[in-house]
Structure formats: structure tokens, C-alpha cells
Amino acid sequence: FLKPDANGVLSTASMVSDQFGFPSALQWKGVADIIARGVNSLPISVVVSMVVAALAAIAMEVARIRTKGRFGLSAVATGLGVVLPPEAVFGMFVGALLFHFMGARHKQAGT
Questions:
Q1: How many other CB atoms are there within 10 angstroms of residue 60's CB atom?
Q2: CB neighbours of 94 closer than 8 A, spacing ≥ 6?
Q3: What is the C-alpha R_g of the chain?
Q4: Per the count of CB atoms within 10 A, which of 3, 17, 57, 87 is most buried?
Q5: pLDDT for 8-63, tens place per residue?
């Protein structure tokens, strides 16, 4: 994946470009930056977004516990939906939908 620069040296700086952005690598770089520099180095809008996301996740889990698992949203699934690429999330959705319909059609256990 590395392209040599003008001097022929392979550098990781060429990995992130408009053509080949490595979105997952950039996300984990952001996590590493937070660990290295602390939350105070982030813009206030990012900190507010993190707090809102944490409160939403807590609300979803409390609703799931209070309804004994009947609450339709999953905090983990929502978090993965934000982090993973859209085509992966869509594939998971289609698979879950298929299993839902097949479970409704074949009610006998083990089928």
C-alpha cells in the first residue's frame, strides 16, 4: 500500500489520501490521539457528541433491561453502525432481516 516519495523512501504519510483514505485506520488514530493527548485536546463539539452518544447508549440499555429484552434498539448495534462502513452495516441488516423472517416461517426449534 505504500508508495515511495520523490526520494524513493516508503512513507506511511502517503497512505491517507482522497483516493485511498483508510477510514478505519483514521478512526483508530483518533482513539490513539485521545489516549495520548486527553479529551481536553478535542473540540467542544466532539466532547458534546460523545456525551450525547453515551447518554443515548445508557438510555437504550436501561430500556432493554426494563422491557426484559423487548426493546427494539441495541446500543452495541447502534455503536457498530456508526463505526463500520455502510455496506457492512447494510449486510448485517439484511442478514438479520432474513433470520427474522425465516424464524417466523419455521417456528420449530432446530430448523
A1: 19
A2: none
A3: 21
A4: 57
A5: 777 766 666 666 666 677 777 778 888 999 988 888 998 899 899 999 999 999 99
Give CA separation, 19 vs 7, 11, 60, in Å.
22, 16, 37
Tell the residue number behind the cell numbers 483518533, with chain if given.
30
Question: Residue 29 to residues 5, 24, 26, 86: CA-CA distances in angstroms?
Answer: 22, 8, 5, 20
Decide: 3 and 17 in contact? Cβ < 8 Å.
no
Q: Across the strands, what pairs with 10?
A: 4
String of DSSP letters for 8-43: S-B-GGGSSSSSS--HHHHHHHHHHHHHHH-GGGS-
Structure pTM?
0.59
